[in-house]
Design goal:
The radius of gyration is 18 Å and the shape is globular. The protein contains 7 helices and 3 strands, in the order H-E-E-E-H-H-H-H-H-H. Helix 2 runs antiparallel to helix 3, helix 3 packs antiparallel against helix 4 and helix 4 crosses helix 5. The protein has one domain. The relative contact order is 0.12. A hairpin with a 2-residue loop joins strand 2 and strand 3. Strands 1-3-2 form a 3-stranded mixed β-sheet. With 185 residues, the chain is mainly α.
Length: 185
Amino acid sequence: MPCGFSEADAKGHKIPVGYSLKNWDPTEEPIMLLGSVFDANSLGKWIYDWTVYHHGSGSPIGEMAGELWLLLIQLFGKIKRAEETAPKIRSMEKREMIEEFIEARDRITKKFRELLNACKAPMLRSSTKQNKEGQLGKSAGVEFVETLFGVDRKLEETNRFIASLRLWNFRFDTNCEKFLRERTI
């Protein structure tokens, strides 16, 4: 957590009081899941760690979780850079293209939040006994992985989401990267 973190950061992002902020870098966009706040990197790591715990690091599902982690970092990192740089780009056409990619992020993150929401109820059901301070137990993390990557659950949707992240990253690199490097085009 960077120095200078305050409750005002949480309020500014409309994070409910009482949510755990220990996994969130306040310089990054917050992602909320069952009373905890994450950034793209910490949530990707959390998903990866639980997947490796349950399936093993060399498993296809473990590799998929690792790719998801990397793609989330790329998406949020590129968007952050685009939002910071777009106002400096003089060409209206090029700035509008970058702004379209920023707007596409909203659609992609909506899909991701829907996937996360689909995992909430199974996590809560699996954890019949709460740990200290209201934290969910190991069974909740395993249930999250089973829901997100389960063949009979959300695997197909997760695959489609990962494919959309790959495509967004490829298109962003192809269409926007050069403008962001040059900044004043």
